[in-house]
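In full, the data.
>
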Amino acid sequence: MAEVMYNPSDVGKEVTNIRGNKSIIRKYHMTEGEKLSAKANWDKEIEHVDSALKLKAGALFFNPYRKGIYYYQLYALFMLGCNEWHIVNDVITKVEDLMSQKFVIKDGKTITVWDKFKGKSSKADAVKSKDFVGRIQENMVFFQRLNKLHPTGYKVRQVCSSVDIKRENKAGLPNGLYLYRLSTYSSEELALPTRDFSNFDFSKSKSNYVNYKFIGTTITDHELISNGVVLGSHAKGSIR
């Protein structure tokens, strides 16, 4: 089984995936040279940003992605304030604001990067079609992936950060209210994502929130689960 933490030294190795098939571990990390380049580009990007926002992020964080939707989602969380929870509507509004300031040529016309992203068609073979909101929320889950074969969030961890997800009960919203947080840490080892469901009531079984492939911490209304292992019980609302 290959559901363990991604390690750059494993790139190119053959492993057996969860279906029993052979897979080659692909590169998902930044090299030292790529880190230096991304850091320089980020410093230039936020040159005129309020120093208070930079202080909230700390000295180790920079945006590790190229300028696509991943980049702008992390940028939005940074601009809203690191180490604080933000509701999904505020995150999307900030993503739209940032992407609306950049332009591209499409079919001979100049449009914003946001309009290009929003108007993107779903994949023809998609099991479930997603609108732009769904794609943004799905990306938040991608930021949390650190497993060996598909660690789409490993670059976030390389900059001593994690994208955390919280889900709470909300009247009129059967699926609850989603909140997101860009958390920053003093070292890469500490940077593991959190999924907090302590204030959301699932209508089905605990399998809705327990994912044994998830490398990070899951908080439910009565349990603390680390990397798929239940560490113990706690009183509802005692962990934040």
